[in-house]
Amino acid sequence: MNRRIRTRVVLAATAVAVVAGTFTAGVGAARAGDDRGHRGKATEREIAGLFDQWNAALRSGDPGRVAERYAEDAVLLPTASPTIRTNRAEIADYFEHFLRKKPRGEKLRSVITVLDADSAIDAGLYRFHLTDPRTGATKPVDARYTYEYEKRGGKWLIVNHHSSVLPAEG
Predict the structure, then answer these.
(1) One-character DSSP codes across 9-70
(2) Whole-number pLDDT of residue 1
(3) Paired strand residues for 105
(4) What is the pLDDT of residue 34?
(5) 42 burial class (0-12, 13-18, 19+ CB within 10 angstroms)?
(6) Hey, which residues does 157 pair with through a beta bridge?
(7) Which terminus of the chain is more solvent-facing, meaning fewer CB atoms within 10 Å of its CB: N or C?
(8) Separation CA 66–CA 27 (nearest Å)
(9) Cα 158 to the chain's mean position, in Å?
(10) β-bridge mates for residue 124, sequence order
(11) Which residues face 149 on adjacent strands?
(12) In the chain, which residues have pLDDT < 50?
């Protein structure tokens, strides 16, 4: 082989090695990015714990503390009101009235779906123990629920909450 051909072969082989190395590094970086996304995904246990935090806020008796669990633009379709609440002030207003019944919630059945690192849904059945402010009598109320959560600014917030009294079997 003459010198000119040998130089071209060496340059071509070098170019192929550089392109292959760049491609391999790019694929490795993309996979690393994917792995980080999966590691950052919430666990079902973490999402289940959000209900416990919400329930603790209920037990505080402070409607503002409960409303802080919701995003500013959250939607609440509450159990004990026909009015749809579409912001934190309206949500706090609902809880101001609801908290007079000293609610204590417990989950009966929960189905949690973690959608990605920043969103999840918890749907199921819960029971509230409500106290009549006039008589002091406590009664259980079973309801269906759906919480849609989003992580905003590093904090899990409720963006949509639907709750309705469990209908009798038909």
Answers:
(1) HHHHHHHHHHHHHHHHHHHHHHHHHHHHHHHTSPPHHHHHHHHHHHHHHHHHT-HHHHHTTE
(2) 57
(3) 128
(4) 41
(5) buried
(6) 150
(7) C
(8) 45
(9) 7
(10) 110, 145
(11) 120, 158
(12) 5, 7, 9-38
- The two three-digit tokens of residue 102, written as one number: 């000293």
- Nearest to residue 64, comparing CAs of 85, 93, 40? 93
Which of 93, 112, 91 is CA-nearest to residue 41? 112
Query: Is-contact 77 164, C-beta < 8 A?
Result: yes
- Kindly state the tokens that stand for 156: 């899990």
**What's the CA gap between 95 and 58, in Å, rounded?**
8
**What residues are paired with 147 via a beta bridge?**
122, 161
CA distance 73 to 70: 8
